[in-house]
Amino acid sequence: MDEEETWTAYHEAGHAVIGFLLGGTIESVGMYAEEDDWLPERFGDCHVNWGRVDPNANLQIEREVLTLLAGPVAEMIYREEDMHPADDPTWQHDWQLASQLCRRMFPDPYAREVFMTAALTVLKDQIWRDRCWAAIAAVADELLAHENLDADQLSDILRFWTTR
């Protein structure tokens, strides 16, 4: 197993755990995602179902932005490197999607940048917490062992680590 696979596992686990904690149903998470109509070929993929939501509601936008940025933050913590998601080519897609979502709430680029930077700070604080980090590590370990996890597999892991 190489280092990049481990980084990808922690990255995708970050998306999954934070998405779950924010009320999403994690339908699947996997390594080695393929190119599709709207995204380029990438190392991993996490599908979050938010249920029926108002796409213009600020709370929903915040949940999605935090979930998008959680992958880079989890990977950053695992790698013990304090980098900005906009500066790492493998994280730029997450950063750009989060920025697009934030445009609805913050048309001003400066306000958007302030919000997204604050989101990174909140995520760093949350992800470092014992149960959150344990859940991320557990999902990452399962991803490294199986490459893909479905909703049932994820539900068991996430409930165990987040409801104790």
Structural write-up:
The chain is mainly alpha-helical and 164 residues long. The chain has one domain: Peptidase M41 (Methane Monooxygenase Hydroxylase, Chain G, domain 1, Up-down Bundle). The chain has 6 helices and 3 strands. The radius of gyration is 15 Å and the shape is globular. The chain starts with a helix and ends with a helix.
List keywords for this structure.
mainly alpha; three-stranded antiparallel β-sheet; 164 residues; 3 strands; 6 helices; single chain
Helix content: 55-70%
* Strand adjacency order, main sheet: 2-1-3
Amino-to-carboxy terminus distance: 31 Å
**Unreliable parts:** 38-42
String of helices and strands: HEEHHHHEH
In short:
The chain has helices at residues 3-21, 58-79, 92-102, 109-127, 130-146, 151-162, and strands at 25-31, 44-49, 148-150. The protein is mostly helical.
Task: Please give the structural blueprint.
Elements: H1 3-21, E1 25-31, E2 44-49, H2 58-79, H3 92-102, H4 109-127, H5 130-146, E3 148-150, H6 151-162
Antiparallel strand pairs: 1-2, 1-3
Helix pairs in contact: 1-2, 1-5, 2-3, 2-4, 5-6
